[in-house]
Design a protein that fits this description.
The protein has four helices and four strands. The protein has one domain. By secondary structure, it is an alpha+beta fold. Helix 1 crosses helix 4 and helix 2 packs across helix 4.
Length: about 120
């Protein structure tokens, strides 16, 4: 029921994910939640596979532990520019730290995964 993000990922339809549609017979760039959610799912699948204690389970407490810890700016890119508003629809602007546009930011998967595993141990 929440309307704000905990995290973000590249979801721009301009710089999004390159996909091939066999039915349409071509390559397309897709964005939005349809791109960001599977990227996070893949990141967590890798983390689950790498973890020696199995499934990481509910990761929100671990994400905010990292956000409040010394590795935040190593594990996440804190998006601080641009807004998601489209005239005439008001929106939110990114700012340092948590914001209603990108949550705590976008991950650096190679750095976040080990810290996420450690935070859920």
């Amino acid at each position: 029921m929440r309307g704000v993000p905990d995290v973000a990922y590249n979801s721009s339809s301009h710089t999004g994910v390159l996909t091939y549609d066999a039915e349409e017979g071509g390559w397309f760039i897709v964005g939005g939640t349809s791109a960001a959610s599977p990227q996070w799912a893949g990141l967590l699948a890798l983390a689950d596979a790498m973890s020696t204690h199995g499934d990481l389970g509910y990761i929100n407490p671990a994400l905010y532990q990292i956000f409040n810890g010394p590795n935040y700016h190593t594990d996440f890119y804190d998006v601080t520019k641009n807004c998601n508003q489209t005239s005439p629809i008001p929106g939110w602007c990114a700012s340092p730290g948590w914001d209603a546009v990108t949550g705590i930011g976008t991950p650096d998967a190679g750095k976040l995964i080990p810290d996420l595993i450690a935070a859920t141990s």
